Amino acid sequence: MSKFERDSEPERRKKSRLYFFLLLLVFLPRSQKALSLIEENPSPLIAKVLVWVNGQEDKGEIRQLVSIKEGDSYSLKNVTQVIRQLFKTGLFSDVQVAKNGEEKLELEFFLTRKLFTRKVIFSGDVGISGKKLREGIYSLRADSFFSEDKLQKAIQEFKEVLKGEGYFHPEIRASTEKDEKKSSIDVLFEINSGERFVLKQIAFKGEVLVPEAELKEKMESKEGNAYIPSLLDRDLTRLKEMYNLMGFQRAEVEVEERNINEQAKSVSLSLKVTPQEKIQIIIKGAKVPLSLVKPIWEERIFEEWGLIEGEAQILAYLRKKGYIFSTVNSSIERADSEIHVVHEVSAGQKYKIQGISFEGLKYFVPSELKRELGIVEKVPFLSWIDGERLFELPREIEIFYKSHGFSNTKVNLNFIKKDKKVDAIFSIEEGTQQKIKNISISGASLFSAETLLAQMTSFEGGPFFQPDVQKDREKLENFYLDQGVRGTEIEVKIENAGEDLFSLIFTVKEGGKIRIDKVIITGNIVTEKGTILKELKIREGEYAFQEKILETKRGLERLGIFSEVRMEEIPVSPEAENLVINLREGDRNYASLGVGLETKNEPRTFEVWDNVIRLRGTAEFIRSNIFGRASQLSFVAQASLKEKRGVVSWEQPYFFGIPIQTYLNAWLEREERKSFGYDRRGVSLTGIKSISESLIFLTTLRWARTTLYYLEISESEIDRQYFPFSATSLSGSIIWDRRDDTFNPAKGSFFSVVAEWAYPLFKAESDFLKTFIKYQHFFPVFSRLNFSSTARLGLGKGRMPIHERFFGGGSNSFRGEEFDELGPKDPNSLQPIGGKALFLLNFELRFPLVSAFKYLSGAIFYDKGNVFAKRSQFSLESLQDAVGIGIRYRTPLGPLRFDLGWNLDSPEGKRKPLAFITIGNVF
Question: Taking the domain 280-346, which CATH number applies?
Answer without folding.
Answer: 3.10.20.310
